[in-house]
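Ticket opened by: R.M.
Priority: normal
Category: complex prediction / small molecule

The reporter submitted a protein together with zinc ion and asked that the result be attached to this ticket for the collaborator who will pick it up next week. Submitted input follows.
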Amino acid sequence: MNTSMLHIDGARLWQSLMDLAQVGATDLGGNCRLALTDEDKAGRELVSGWLRDAGLSLRVDALGNIFARRAGRNPELPPVMSGSHIDTQPTGGRFDGNYGVLAALEVVRRLNELNIETEAPIDVAIWTNEEGSRFVPVMMGSGVFAGVLTLDQALNARDKAGLCVRDELLRIGYAGPEPVGGYPVKAYYEAHIEQGPVLDTEDLSVGIVTGALGLYWYDVIVTGQECHAGPSPMPYRRDALKVACGLINEILTFADTRQPDGRVTVGELDMHPNSRNVVPGRVRFTVDLRHSDAAELELMHTQLQQLIEGAGNVGVSVELKVVQQMAPTLFDAGRVANVRQAVQSLELPHLELISGAGHDAVYLSRVIPTAMIFVPCIGGISHNEIEDARPDELAAGASVLLNAMLADAGRVA
Ligand SMILES: [Zn+2]
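Result attached by the on-call engineer:
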């Protein structure tokens, strides 16, 4: 192994993860810290205390994003940033998001211990409401920072009880004075659990993430006519479900030829009137299409449109509505190369892969040269209280983060 490579303190990182997991702990060993709740406030205060103890100066912006700075030798240089989120799903795990924030904290702690000064400042970021569980849309803090959403859109978002982001930020004391975004950042690195099964199944400790899948979300509405199940002979029916079933079957197999990155999911299915002795008059289902390549994704989109156009018949109509669309993300080649270099020098078993899930890094990559580092989660299980990860692999990913950031921030000799 290249002896100039640095290692973080894996035991300390694990302890920080377990300590944060005490805040909003659930019975099954997971976490519930929904964005801008009292639990989120308590989590923010715990981690902010650790960041201050590490000598960092903290700023909070108008959307509650927290930035903690370790000064560089040259304060004029834009910072090298790393972070993630500490809000969770209602039945969330201990590692999703939390790992990225605490790995960045561990990088700073280790640099302090080793008395390493960097040319550029280092910022640890905690992004508000990544999960989008309490307030829609998801990846809110990073989305406004990157200019994908406006600050007003975010502040006016309401939860199911009618409470808005603006009021909840004020209530928990995180409506900060800083503007959101609008300043240069040299590079952004985010460490995260994979949230899928590939690294764990292949027994690899680190994933070099080169980008994220693009997606199309659709609603498909099939309209026929409901009628009595007994007196209506088959040829007389306008059965919406019969058409929907044939269509779903074709949709679910059409990604088979676009592997490994083509993905298609029918996740919701509603029938009307959903009654045992009534022929369904209307069926609504959702389609989620994903691909890493923009041209391939467009081909899948066109193919779906053609399937829909050919699916109706005299008595049954089929309508396709695009609900959301996001182009595939390609991370910055230079930052991915820094991650790759660190992984190779640390001699870690690894794979290059594409993120299937959205992350703060996906939005941030639109305004900052960005890369991500994945570590396995056991069984690929995430967004679940039993989400789990191995201490040695979490440590390996954080050591990759440390060395990649140092390559960007410049070690003062
Ligand atoms: Zn996450």
